[in-house]
Amino acid sequence: MAEVDYMQEDDIHLDTTRARFASVLKRHAELTERLSRDSDKMIFERLQREFEAARASQTQEVCLDNEQWNDGLLATIRERVHMEAERKAMQSSPVDASMLPMCEFHDKVTYKVGNKVICCLEGARIGIQYDTFFAGEPREQYHCVLESKSFLEKMTVLEHTIPFFLPLREAETDLLSSNAMKFIDHIGELLQSYVDRREQVRLIKDLYGNQIGELYHSLPYHMIEFFLEDFECKVTVSLRYADLLSILPTGISVVAWPMSQSKKSPARGKKGKVAFGNNAGPMRLFYAEAALRTLSLPEAFAEIVLNLEEALEQNVQPKDPTAST
Fold it and tell me: Is the distance from CB of 306 to CB of 280 less than 8 angstroms?
């Protein structure tokens, strides 16, 4: 009896700690979202207006395939923005119009490559707008503005609306000076992968929120943990992604834990599911881990719940004492 009382008291302390921790995480997430939104809002609105103005004044929009998007084209875009900046600088100075350089680039061209829109902005700047999607539906737009002092100097990131927890500055250091096209593509892949992971988590919360006891995640959603408590056991799901470009996890752990007697209902389970035996220990759910490696998170979640009862029954069936004799 003393052992049972101790376990019940331990469960109460654990629940209290977990509730406090969940409250701290919730406040942290709300603060992070508010700070990010407020700090980026003015930049986003200004860049959005600037990109819209650039597209409205364009004389041509060129849609490119992957083969047409190359270093040569990017060099052409850089040449355009610098020659236009030089032309406007000379126009504003008191010189004879006949002395202005002849510019071969008269058109204002916008380039569309996949989910990227590349514009020539005022002041020798190149603007990239990234469109993101989930399940075929549009999500947020992000912006990145590049500049260089001259055509021969390396480009740098002037301003952007990329989420602060994505490694933009690391990519700028590693890629922008040596391969600007790869940098532009890499940022687009980072953003789309982040949105994909985030939307998968949002979808399971919308569809299965009543079955999820708690859910934690890192800001880029590359570490995710949640618990299922709608059964006579607690199922913990821990997901780790190999990198920020991954949309399927590689480090996966799904474990079913027996609940203490104080938390079990007199019936078999909340939904008639099989309960653990009194002496049962934690159980790895390999079928669930396999589903999470190959399916999206909402699809894998449905697979886990659908087959959970059968998996538990197969692992808690009492063994025949005469089987080994």
Answer: no
| 153 in any annotated domain | yes
Look at residue 179 and tell me whether its pLDDT is greater than 70.
Answer: yes
Residue whose entry in the numeric block shows the structure tokens 């203490």:
260
| Average pLDDT over every residue of 108-126 | 91
Q: Which of 196, 222, 248 is the last residue of a domain?
A: 196
> Could you tell me the pTM of the whole model?
0.80
Domain that holds residue 307: 209-261+277-317
Do 289 and 243 reside in the same domain of the chain? yes
Task: Judge if 81 and 160 occupy the same domain.
Answer: yes
